[in-house]
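User: Some background: our group keeps a shared notebook of sequences we're curious about, and every so often someone picks one and asks for a predicted structure to add to the entry. Today it's my turn. The entry only has the sequence so far, pasted here. Could you supply the structure so I can complete it?
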Amino acid sequence: LSLAGALSLAGALSLAGVLVEDSGAQAAGTPLELGHTVLPGGDALTHGRGLDCWEVRKRNSSEWCRFVRSNPDCRLDGGFLDYLEGVFCVFPPRLLPLAVTLYALWLLYLFIILGVTAEKFFCPNLSAISTNLKLSHNVAVSLAAHCVFSLTLPLHGVTFLAFGNGAPDVFSAVVAFSDPRTAGLAIGAIFGAGVFVTTVVAGGIALVKPFTAASRPFLRDVIFYMVAVFLTFMVLYFGRMTLGEALGYLGLYAFYVFTVVLCTWIHRRQRGEGLAPPGPWEPEMPTDAEERESTGTSSGDYGEEYRPLLPSRETSLHILSAALSPLDYRKWRRKPWYWRLFKVFRVPVELVLLLTVPVVDPDKEDLNWKRPLNCLHVLTSPLLCILTLKSGTYALYQIQGVFPVWGLVALVGSVLAIIIFITTSNEEPPKYHCVFAFLGFLASAMWINAAATELVNILRTLGVIFQLSNTVLGLTLLAWGNSIGDTFSDLTMARQGYPRMAFSACFGGIIFNILVGVGLGCLLQMTSSQLAVKLEPDSLLVWILAGALGLSLVFSFVSVPAQCFQLGKAYGACLILYYLAFLCVALLTEFRVIHLSTL
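Assistant: Of course. Here's the predicted structure to add to the notebook entry:
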């Protein structure tokens, strides 16, 4: 049991360490500014870096391009596209609204990429890994069935499932923390998503279907989350994060996992080894039929009724074409027009991901073994990893000035693909098929990291264009984008009759995001000579954000037991009104309608 928690933390540490490698090339001790020191109309000097990039809009439009290209603060670290140079140099000033519109559409598409990658590729491979490591039947089976939902069920909700569901949030936080100029996005997104999920999503569940909350899991998760928020508040107050504190964040999450495992073990001992009906405080579990209905079927899985009576051998070309089809035509005909429209936007993303990310499915007889496609993955997945690592810097490196690294990776991958294709068959997966789950895990993680990097860069660009702080962008756009998947999935579960399960997800799933996101993000910025990261909350908005999250948790912690855990529409309406009031205060603070002269 403890292996699950340890492995999830180790995986997060090692993976994120690879993804932001060499991010410590920045000056040691550079403060991570949680809100830019200049608000509209204020002083535009940045500590030690000359003019702030926000100054570009205050200059004549003819000087925009020269200012962006000559100012070091306008350089975007990482990513494949230079959005600042694009909007201020490629587009003429009169077409600035068009550029902003295109950037907004690309921002929405990046959120789609994050969601599809995490749901269809990242989580299934995590499920396959847990099965191959023989962690637990719940981890191996329930993880695959519920990976789209941020559950806080025993074990799989706090380890692999939390890592899978929180991947976009944590990767966005790590990428944002890697640059002092975008650290405010990380704090704003983590705190902003916390406020949004614990108020709007939780309140929406109570409005959709009044229910009785699971008392013990709710109290446990809220207490741990309040401790995490309090620790972050103290770190912001003292203005620095030490090595011990960063490790303490990760240790607190490990302790949370241990607590869940221990409570689950004690509860099972009390009710016996058999699976008894869930108690009044325990989240109800969907049946197997409901799980299959909620998860749907893939394009190649049509159920028993569509299988041929006599076995037939399919050609490799037919297997490859069927495996690369992201559409289930039977499902397409049954769905409404808006589902089809959204699917059209998802198809290009799913097709590219199918080409580059292998998926091992433990629930299928053949483990989703597609011989020609998996052999192609041996070539495309390593190429993807090397081309997305540090935005392709390592891939373009010339070995002895002659042969590029990507060429060597392509050569080795081609040889291995040919060997695997010759030594395997279409009907039966090889004994080493589990290796493809680890390869798919790494490839999907690289996709998420690349999309998160572009996401952070485009949000910073929009902040420069509209002269908005990183904190307000984090608590609005980034927090909403990362939470939209949880919102739809939790509300869907509530409508289907599982409101307690969805409500538990609101308070348990985001514990992983704040503890691992802040702890890991700061830990990766520390060097051997500088074992502390300075955090400078220069804006009142940061304190409002932290206080609003803490107050919402205290409200739920007091009001839910006061109602005997009977949550109705009045509770949901109060939470949603609270979020609207918080959002109004945050925006008024950003535009200096509300301000304190001492801050």
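Suggested note for the entry: Strands lie at 32-33, 45-46, 50-51, 211-212, 240-242, 398-399, 403-404, 532-536, 566-567. The chain has 21 helices and nine strands.
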